[in-house]
Each structure stands twice: as structure tokens, then as C-alpha cells.
Amino acid sequence: QVQVVESGGGSVQAGGSLRLSCAASGRTFSRYTVGWFRQAPGKEREFVAVVTWSGSNTYYADSVKGRFTISRDNAKNTVYLQMNSLKPEDTAVYYCAAKSSNNRLAFRDTYDYWGQGTQVTVSS
């Protein structure tokens, strides 16, 4: 069983940066793939980025590639999402999710554990 809690959201102007954190409980957290998803008002929840259990493999949605960086510190049971060059279209609630498998990484329905989300608002 893994519980995850997001933090670090807030309001920034376009071009600014934020770093989101996903803190997890559970001694086996280092064995879990962790992804970030986001959901804007009136839209479906979409994949943003994912890091596999070792941290050696990361994947990004095309819309954030080159601007966002996902990383993890298994000693701290934490996954980070560094978001730079933010755009108004990045405005959404950002969710952290975890699962034990390393396939179908961008498919939200394959993730077992979800946080409550943290709001990110980017103004123009």
C-alpha cells in the first residue's frame, strides 16, 4: 500500500517556474513507477510525465517536453516535477500517481494510487 501527497502548487505568471513534490509513504516506494497527470476544468485528466522505479527512465507528454523535468529521490520517498517556462495552458490540478508495473506508463487507468492533487494556475 502506498499513499501519495502532492505539494508545491500555486499561482505564477507565464514564463515562471514551480516545483511540485509528491511525498509517499511505504517502505517499498522505491519499487513503484510514479507519474504526474493534470486535469484542467472541463477536460479529461491527461498524462504529463513519468519516472520508473530506478529513476533511470523518464517520459514526457509532448506538450511539456523540454520545459518540465521529473525526478525522484528514493531515500526521501519523494518525486519532483520541475516546471519551467510555464504557460497559461498549463493551468490545471496536478496529480501524482503510483503503480508497481513498468508498462503502459501514460495510461491513467493503470495507476493504483492517487493523491488529492495540487492546483497550478498560470496567468498571462
Describe, in short, the structure shown.
The chain is mostly beta strands and 124 residues long. It has strands spanning 3-7, 10-13, 18-25, 33-39, 46-51, 58-60, 68-73, 78-83, 92-99, 113-114, 118-123. Helices cover 0% and strands 49% of the residues.
What attributes characterize this protein structure?
mainly beta, 4-stranded antiparallel β-sheet, 0% helix
Number of helices: 0
Q: Which structural class do you get from the secondary structure elements?
A: mainly beta
* Helicity level: under 10%
Give the overall form. globular
Radius of gyration: 13 Å
E-strand count? 11
- What fraction of residues sit in β-strands? over 45%
* Measured distance between first and last alpha carbons: 40 Å
What string gives the helices and strands in order?
Answer: EEEEEEEEEEE
Main beta sheet: strand number and arrangement?
7 strands, mixed
Q: What number is the mean pLDDT?
A: 95
Unreliable residue stretches = none
